[in-house]
Write a structure and sequence with these properties.
This protein has three helices and three strands. It is of the alpha+beta class. A hairpin with a 4-residue loop joins strand 1 and strand 2. The structure holds iron/sulfur cluster (2 copies).
Length: 130
């Protein structure tokens, strides 16, 4: 089990994630930073802030403003073997990763996150937040 209180970079994994359609509007009173735009992909919706952190991340405390209602992808982050949602710092067991393993995961996230690399999106529809 990962203990995020030991994270050297708390909140660093809270980047722009796809959430189910309507989720962002439903929780808009908990938004911590107004997004530049919302990108719709064939998986869901993703609010993009200019600092590339999640709209629901409190920038000062590095805590999630909707923790109990956070999306499923956030709940399983670090708990499955899919590199897209692997914690760079800790293994599923809670043991720390080697530096090489951490760098490999961070490099992959930087190069392959479709939200950060719009060319990798299949279909994109963009609308401004109301
Ligand atoms: S999941 Fe990993 S990167 Fe994210 S806060 Fe926890 S320890 Fe840090
Ligand atoms: S919803 Fe919460 S846990 Fe999920 S990425 Fe955003 S701030 Fe992090």
């Amino acid at each position: 089990m990962i203990d995020c209180s030991k994270c050297p970079e708390p909140g660093s994994c809270c980047g722009p994630f796809e959430m189910e359609p309507g989720f962002i509007e439903k929780h808009k009173d908990k938004i911590q930073k107004k997004p530049e735009k919302i990108v719709r992909t064939n998986i869901g919706e993703c609010a993009l802030c200019d600092d590339l952190s999640c709209v629901f991340l409190n920038r000062k405390t590095k805590k999630c403003s909707i923790y109990d209602d956070r999306p499923g992808i956030c709940k399983i982050y670090g708990m499955v073997e899919n590199i897209r949602i692997q914690c760079p710092w800790f293994k599923r067991s809670g043991n720390p990763r080697s530096e090489a393993s951490r760098k490999k995961i961070q490099r992959w996230h930087k190069n392959n996150n479709p939200i950060l690399n719009p060319r990798k999106l299949n279909e994109v529809e963009i609308r401004l937040m109301k």
